[in-house]
What we know:
mainly beta, Immunoglobulin-like, disordered N terminus
Amino acid sequence: MAKRIVSLVIVAMMLLAMVPFTASAVDSSLTLTMSKNGFTYTVYQVATLDTETGAYTLNTTDEGIKTAMNTPNQTGADFLAALDAASNPGTSKGTVTNTTNFTTTEMGIYYAKATEWPNNVQRKSNTVIVPSYDTNSKSWKFISGTNADGGDSLTIDLSTNGKATSGDVHVDKGFDTVSDKDPRYKGQGETVTYTLEATIIGSTDQRAKFYQIYDTLSKGLTFNDDVRVYYLDASGTAGSEVTDDFIVDDNNTDAKLTGDYADGTFITVTAKDTTLDNGTAFYAAKKVRVVYTATVNNNAVVGTPGNPNTDGLKYTNAADKSEDKPGPEVRVYTYVARAYKVDASNGNTPLAGAKIGLYSTKAAAEAGVEANAIATGTTGTDGKAKFIKDGDTNEVRLAPATYWVRELKAPDNYNLNTKAYPVVINASTSGNGVSVNTEAITNTKSKLPQTGGAGTMMFTIIGGALILVAGALFVVVMKKKSSK
Length: 484
């Protein structure tokens, strides 16, 4: 906070005792301006100054200000703190806005206090202006903590030097693109890392009353309950983790859980009261960064709609002005694979009843071990198989890659096809997200039973032979009986 004030209150009073006042003082003027919209500063004359005698006369009975004025080695910051705490800091002399300036030629100590500011205020502070005697020109000049004028008059823009900063309150959202090159395209069970960054509200002398970063996940994304919070400096560099300065909750009860976010998760990261009331690290920072992960689940939307995630910032500033600032929306895309089965003798005839396995590599597909499959599916009357993991009700969600499918069980009266067929899924934010093997899995009709027997003719031959043997035995038996 740029609130350094020259500690000349006491110094100036000490100088007065050493300066002859027989010379007439040169008139000096003080002008206060405001170049930003929405701010109002009330100007108080804390004390008047007699340029002939060098005597200060306080315009307030506030004991804190009296103590600050009479304490040796008092700093400008301590004096300003006493003024900020006072209910009666002095005589009100006027206001300063972006359309109204304040000008005076009456020497004295002046205090400019922010009394109105816009909702999107980021930082503001009050200031105090102390006059000092120039022994070279034999005149009094106004000097502020960060502004010194070489002439007899001084103009101070209260919006400069960090005294009033507004219009920059915002919240951003993105992915971890450092360790994850394709964070937008994920499959079931894969992790997405989200990064949220929000502007700090308030300052140590104008403390925020409420500060909350929130995030809304659609139901296709499972929150992993691993929030980490950091403060960022002006260069965007993060310090040590400060998650303990905040309260993290995923209550799932917010009104924002509608539409694309129905049955989703609502996460809040709220600054603790102690953080806002006593936390100098909070106000010293430029932004708050929130990092967490979510896992793509079996409810993830496939294809173009994607799986949205949005954030926002709610706050109440020192003037009890509240705002709900929405942030950007980002989406994660996922896909499904399907296999197509046809009769080899007629490629237009789909075949039902074939069990197909989905594999991550060609070698695994050719091996045909069902336990190693990502998921399995059985073709329907349309000849297509949807791949579903055991225990799931929806198709398995897949990231962009080349997958392989292979028949594990052929339809009745058809031979098993042990060839592996590729299914290529390309990363895209458009389309229905469904990929099917371009070369259909073909089957030939079996002339033998699926069990591997020798066919019905063989059974007929064997049956006839047995009948002949039985007949021969019957004749032999009868002959033996007759011979007796």
